[in-house]
Amino acid sequence: MSQVFSNIKFSVLDLAPVLEGHTPSHSFTNSADLARHAEEWGYHRYWLAEHHNMPGIASSATSLVISHVASNTKKIRVGAGGIMLPNHAPLVIAEQFGTLDSLYPNRIDLGLGRAPGSDQATAYALRRTLNSSPEDFPLQVDELEGYFAGTERVKAIPGKGSNIPIWLLGSSDFSAKLAAKKGMPFAFASHFSPDYTLPALRMYREHFQPSTQLDKPYVMVGVNIIAAETTDRAKWLATSTQQQFLNLIRGAPSELMPPIDDIDRVWNVYEKASVEKNINSKTTIVGDKKTVQEKLQLFIEETKADEVIINGQIYNHDDRLYSYQTIADIVM
C-alpha cells in the first residue's frame, strides 16, 4: 500500500441504483450485499443519498434504507450522504435519526445538504413551503442540533441526547463556510462538481473554528471509481454511468442501463462534452488496478483529504463488487 493511503479512511457512497429490467427491491438486496462486503474489506462507512423523482435511484426514503443496510451489517458506520434538510421538518429528521441511533448505537452518521435533490416540480411536491432562501438552511441546522441537545421546547423522542455526528455536504462554498463556522466535518461532492473542489476545501480549512464535535478541519471528498481487470473493460463498464448522465442532460432521467460497446453512437459532440465536464477525469477514475492506484494517489495528494468516499455506478453487481474489492486491495 502506498504511504499516501496509510492515514486516509475510505468509504462507500451507494446511490442504490435501479437497474434497467429490475426493481427497487433488487437494488436494496444489492445494497445490503455490497455493504456486507465493504465491511469485510475494511471500508469505514457506508452512505446513502436522498434523491427524489429519479428512476435510477432507489434511496428516496433514505432513513429506511440506512436501517436496512445497518441491520445487514455489524460494525461499519452507516449514514446519509445526505439528507436534504430543506425537504423536511428538522424535528422529523431528529426523530428518524434518533431512532436509527437507538437501533444501531454509535454507528449512524447524518450528512446534511441544502439542495432539494430533485427538480423544481418535485421540490414543490416535497416542501412545506417554497418561500425558503439559502439563509434558512443554517437556521434549520441550528434547530436540528437543538433537538439532539434537548434545548428546543419540543423534544425529539427518540433523538434527545443522541450523539450523532453531523456533517455538512456541499458542491460549492456555501456549506464549506457554514461547516467551518460551526466546526463540523465537511464532505464535498467532487464526484459531480469537480471544478469547485479545491476552492471549497481551501475556504473550509482557512475559516475553520473548533467546536465540541471537532477540534480541527476534517474533509471528505467524493470520487467516482470503476475498476476492472483491464482498462478497456473498465471503460466499457463506465458507459452505464455515461448513459445515465446523458439521459439526465436530455431531461429524461433513466434507470442505470447495461454497458454498450460504442458510446459514440449514442451522443453527439455537444452532449459528449457536457457529460465529460460532469464526469471529470480527476474525480472519475476508470481503469485497471494500476491506473486506479496512480490516479487516486494524485487525487488525494491534490485535495489532502482525510477521507475518500467512493461512488461506483456499475450495472452488473458482480462487476461492482470486483471494483470495490480492487480498490480495497489498493488502499487497505
Automatic annotation (TrEMBL):
Coiled-coil ranges from the UniProt annotation: none
Domain Luciferase-like per the UniProt entry, residue ranges: 9-302
Key words of the record: Oxidoreductase
SUPFAM superfamilies per the UniProt record, alphabetical: Bacterial luciferase-like
The protein's Enzyme Commission number: 1.-.-.-
Enzyme kind, highest EC tier: oxidoreductase
GO molecular function terms attached to this record: oxidoreductase activity
PANTHER family listed in its UniProt record: LUCIFERASE-LIKE MONOOXYGENASE
Name the UniProt record assigns to this protein: LLM class flavin-dependent oxidoreductase
